[in-house]
Design goal:
Chain lengths: 279, 250
């Protein structure tokens, strides 16, 4: 069969081109009809529900532990989550423990979000705080917070009113694409804080068992998790917080369909040849 | 006009920030066709800038405020607790003895401290962690809905059959062989899911670049045409296939 023989020896560059087109076409203006509806998974919705359950003045601690190389997957979630916290008027502490390279990215993103008209009245040191880089591991961070949250980080300001120890933090959110937050998951058993994570798609399956046991109270997985969170916040508050994650989700779907189709085709050729060869 | 202002004027303007990401992205992507000088330039510039930027920022936000400044402050006003900074600095400096063949053992003090600290803290926590993960599996098989119940059955029998695949004390025949076969299928499903997640992650990275290209259509079009023109000229007139003789390969 000539066609099958040609498909079997298909140049890899044609495959690259097909995947490239499946990603780029849904992004081009005018191809909006290719958008897919997003439904929230229970892991992502769990994070959303925790923030929804908080009152004004409650505290959330974000451990921003990713670098610009993971920006594509994790920054959309950080943006959506941060906006949600600001809408709920929750105090946000952003700490850059593992991310020397990521700190300027995080600070720039926060600055850009705070320039939006709805957040223009909010102040650093009152409503949110960039805690800069402190070269300590997450375990020491937690031990430090148990003893003296305020003293450990040497920060003063109105935002620290009512926030003295770890017990005063209502949610710790770790955003990373590595094993950096494993100590926080392990020590959750001992200190019983609420800990949620936003991770890259590659590491996502490793953390599902921790969500099932309750060690993680929420989990956002890759670009899809970010798109889900953007949708949840936008729908709840009737705002347009759809960002790059929602924009890229159609491309993600089509590229997966393309890869799935190519794998399926490869298998058909394999089984046909095996049958033909009588093996 | 000082040097920093001149640099800012060159790099911090709209023209540069619009064109440079697009050109750099396309230069790196040109590798998908074939290895070429544009890819090499893009690769080396990326690594150089990343390392230079990382070290500069690491110096500014870590070494300077947490080592140099405290040590300088000691000369102004000394507290005995300041000696801890010196102690940690000396302990960390022992790592440098790894470069010496005869004195490499000095670095073992650092490793000894780290391993001791990690073992002391993590062994009890990990035991708690493993126990929690294990006890979570021991639930009533009736989980309310058919979906939840079937999930537990798959989880328990999947784990058991996958373990049986690695049970080599008896030949894989009869029931053991069939169970091991199910174990292989379970593992293949896991590997498939892991592969799917990896593909999703890698495609997500490209989507970010694709959004950048779509957001700068003029720059993307001009850069793409320029890179294609360069590659045609390069591979047509300049590039020569490397010829290996048998001796050099050997």
């Amino acid at each position: 069969m000539n066609v099958l023989e040609k498909l079997k020896n298909l140049d890899r560059r044609i495959i690259y081109l097909l995947v490239f087109l499946s990603i780029i076409i849904p992004l081009i203006p005018g191809f909006d009809f290719l958008k897919f509806p997003v439904s929230a998974s229970k892991e992502t919705k769990a994070i959303f529900d925790i923030i929804e359950g908080l009152d004004e003045g409650d505290a959330v601690h974000i451990d921003f532990a990713f670098t610009p190389t993971q920006k594509a997957e994790l920054l959309p979630f950080f943006e959506a989550f941060y906006k949600h916290c600001m809408l709920k008027k929750v105090k946000v502490f952003i700490y850059y423990g593992a991310s020397v390279n990521g700190m300027p990215l995080g600070k720039e993103t926060v600055k850009r979000i705070m320039q939006r008209p709805e957040f223009s009245h909010m102040e650093e040191g009152v409503d949110y705080l960039n805690m800069e880089y402190i070269p300590i591991q997450p375990d020491i961070q937690i031990f430090g917070m148990v003893s003296d949250y305020k003293g450990t980080f040497k920060k003063q300001g109105k935002i620290f009113d009512g926030v003295e120890t770890l017990d005063d933090i209502d949610l710790i959110l770790g955003i990373s694409g590595s094993k950096w937050h494993q100590p926080l998951i392990d020590m959750q058993i001992r200190f019983h804080y609420k800990f949620a994570m936003a991770v890259t798609a590659v590491t996502g399956p490793d953390y599902i068992p921790y969500f099932q046991t309750g060690q993680l109270c929420g989990l956002s997985n890759g670009l899809r998790g970010a798109a889900e969170y953007e949708m949840l916040v936008s729908k709840k508050y009737d705002v347009d917080y759809y960002g790059t994650a929602t924009k890229g989700l159609s491309s993600l779907t089509f590229s997966h369909l393309m890869i799935f189709g190519l794998i399926f085709l490869g298998n058909i050729i394999y089984f046909y040849e095996r049958k033909k060869g009588g093996k | 006009m000082d040097f920093n202002t001149i640099l800012d004027n060159i790099f911090l303007n709209n023209f540069f920030s619009n064109w440079m990401p697009v050109i750099a992205t396309l230069m790196i992507m040109s590798f998908l066709y074939k290895d070429n000088p544009l890819f090499k330039i893009g690769e080396n510039v990326f690594i150089g800038i990343s390392l230079g930027y990382f070290w500069t920022i690491l110096w500014d936000i870590s070494v300077k405020p947490f080592l140099i400044m405290p040590v300088m402050d000691m000369f102004v006003e000394f507290h005995w607790t300041d000696l801890t900074t010196i102690f940690w600095f000396l302990l960390a400096s022992t790592m440098l003895f790894r470069f010496s063949r005869k004195k490499a053992w000095i670095a073992n003090y650092y490793f000894g401290f780290i391993f001791g600290y990690m073992a002391g803290m993590y062994i009890p926590i990990q035991i708690q962690n493993i126990l929690l993960q294990s006890t979570n599996l021991m639930k009533d098989i009736n989980q309310g809905s058919f979906y939840e119940t079937s999930k537990w059955i798959v989880l328990i029998f999947g784990t058991f059959s996958a373990l049986m695949y690695f049970f080599f004390s008896k030949p894989h025949k009869g029931i053991l062989g069939k169970t091991a076969r199910v174990g292989i299928i379970v593992m293949m499903i896991f590997f498939g899911a892991a592969f799917g997640s990896t593909v999703m992650g890698r495609v997500s990275l490209f989507i970010d670049r694709a959004i950048l290209l779509v957001d700068h259509p003029f720059e993307s079009l001009v850069s793409t045409l320029g890179i294609i023109a360069f590659m045609i000229i390069y591979f047509k007139f300049i590039y020569k296939e490397k010829e290996y003789d048998d001796e050099s390969v050997m």
